[in-house]
Design brief:
Blueprint (H helix, E strand, L loop, with lengths): L1 H8 L21 H6 L24 H4 L7 E7 L4 H11 L5 H9 L12 E4 L4 H7 L3 H9 L12 E3 L11 H7 L4 E3 L9 E9 L3 H12 L4 E9 L4
Parallel strand pairs: 1-6, 2-5, 5-6
Antiparallel strand pairs: 3-4
């Protein structure tokens, strides 16, 4: 009765098109927007998670050449509307209304089954200046929202961003790969030694951000590094 009354007083709307919904149970998407959600599934690269057009799971060219420092990366969805709009609203508008729906989508996917239980969950950090400007770290919000069962494993002190850089969204692929060099550091020596680490960020585009973080974690002695991003950009 309480839920019905709440829906009557505060009618829920679709996160994608703002169409009124009949209930407030997440995920809050109408049938049309739900159909637009492009989940990333096999076949894909077992290392970086790049989806393949056909065949079984197999390593992509980049991973055959040992490009990445992490052991495995997985993304829940393709970076396209309506998810792209939700991420932008979260990141630059502080709109947190989609978090419960993103948690429901993560829990209902097979993505969790491809990730091992970590010892540490590390959101990709923001520079202190950017954090003050934005007021929150979207990677931390996603880590808490998508992995409520591992909230006690989240650590925001171990990995630090030491230099303010140009936002990756404003750069080309080549510029992204050089923009973040020597930007991250481990604030606590020995903090990841022998640990299984889950690194969390919002979008995987070229992989430059998680690669730089993973390089630092690997040098710090992490036993295994897995990456989760809510979305993945398939355009290059």
């Amino acid at each position: 009765m309480f839920e019905a009354l709440k829906d009557l007083l505060f009618p829920p709307a679709c996160l994608g098109c703002e169409r009124r919904l009949d209930h407030s149970r997440p995920p809050l998407f109408c049938a049309d927007c739900q159909a637009e959600l492009a989940f990333i599934r096999s076949p894909l690269c077992p290392c970086c998670g790049t989806p393949h057009v056909a065949g079984g799971d197999h390593l992509c060219g980049a991973c055959l050449n040992n490009r990445y420092a992490f052991d495995a990366a997985r993304s829940l969805l393709s970076y396209q509307p309506p998810v792209a709009n939700i991420i932008l609203a979260l990141k630059f508008g502080g709109n947190l209304t989609a978090i419960a729906s993103l948690e429901a989508l993560t829990a209902g996917s097979d993505c969790l089954g491809q990730l091992g239980e970590p010892d540490l969950v590390l959101p990709v950090p923001l520079h202190p200046n950017r954090l003050r400007e934005r007021g929150f770290n979207q990677a931390l919000v996603l880590a808490k929202g998508c992995f409520p069962q591992w909230r006690d494993k989240i650590n925001t002190e171990l990995l630090a961003r030491t230099r303010l850089t140009t936002p990756q969204s404003q750069l080309s692929g080549k510029e992204r790969r050089t923009n973040l060099r020597k930007v991250f550091t481990l604030a606590q020596s020995g903090g990841v030694t022998g640990k299984r680490v889950l690194l969390v960020d919002d979008v995987f585009t070229t992989g430059s951000t998680v690669q730089e973080c993973s390089t630092i974690l690997r040098a710090g002695g992490a036993a295994r590094i897995e990456v989760f991003t809510l979305a993945r950009s398939l355009a290059r």
